[in-house]
């Protein structure tokens, strides 16, 4: 049955487990009583121990997000994960590793081992983006005389000459200090 579902559905939509029951548990109102359903036995991966610290941490994050024990070769979706939990996992990876892993990476490499292999490349891509953004951020503007922005001061100087006083351009609450022009 799982094989048939896997052939006809995307991997993220295939059921993680199928449990045969004689009857479904019902509430007195006739609705499905989910709390009374038996816990499914989920198919596990091949490896039982993580190979690296990153795999170990990712297995812990899988366990935290999914609520089931995860091993390095266990698929996120086979353990009961879905798109909303994948987003939560991506956020926990960012908190733990400082790497912004896109949710699509969880879909394309859904095991802790595959995600651990992608972390260094993603960290390098994040660093490149940060460097590019820092190059685009303009340098801070320098303040002119008495807290006046250079563009305002230049306008005032055209009217009164470069040595003329600049009046009324200071910031409120900040006293102007210009002893050359008799200001306090």
Give an overview in words:
- The chain is mainly α and 184 residues long.
- It has a domain at 2-121: Non-ribosomal Peptide Synthetase Peptidyl Carrier Protein, Chain A (Orthogonal Bundle), CATH 1.10.1200.
- Helices cover 42% and strands 0% of the residues.
- It is built from 6 helices and no strands.
- The chain has helices spanning 2-8, 53-66, 83-97, 103-108, 112-136, 150-160.
- The longest helix is centred in the C-terminal third of the chain and has 25 residues, at 112-136.
- The protein is elongated and about 70 Å long.
Q: What is the CATH topology classification name of the domain at 2-121?
A: Non-ribosomal Peptide Synthetase Peptidyl Carrier Protein, Chain A
Unreliable stretches covering 5 or more consecutive residues: none
Going by CATH, the architecture of the domain at 2-121 would be Orthogonal Bundle
Structural class: mainly alpha
Largest sheet: none
The proportion of residues in beta strands is under 5%
Organism: Nonomuraea longicatena
Region (Disordered): 140-184
Protein name: Carrier domain-containing protein
Keywords: Phosphopantetheine, Phosphoprotein
């Amino acid at each position: 049955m799982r094989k048939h579902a896997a052939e006809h559905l995307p991997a993220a939509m295939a059921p993680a487990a199928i449990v045969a029951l004689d009857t479904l548990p019902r509430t007195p109102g006739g609705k499905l009583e989910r709390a009374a359903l038996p816990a499914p036995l989920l198919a596990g991966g091949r490896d039982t121990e993580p190979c690296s610290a990153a795999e170990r941490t990712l297995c812990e994050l899988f366990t935290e997000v999914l609520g089931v024990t995860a091993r390095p070769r266990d698929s996120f979706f086979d353990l009961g994960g879905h798109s909303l939990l994948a987003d939560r996992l991506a956020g926990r990876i960012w908190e733990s590793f400082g790497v912004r892993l896109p949710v699509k990476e969880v879909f394309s490499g859904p095991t802790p081992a595959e995600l651990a292999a992608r972390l260094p490349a993603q960290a390098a891509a994040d660093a490149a983006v940060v460097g590019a953004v820092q190059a685009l951020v303009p340098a801070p503007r320098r303040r002119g005389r008495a807290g006046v922005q250079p563009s305002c001061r230049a306008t005032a100087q055209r009217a009164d000459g470069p040595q003329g006083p600049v009046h009324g351009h200071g910031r409120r609450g900040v006293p102007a200090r210009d002893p050359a022009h008799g200001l306090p």
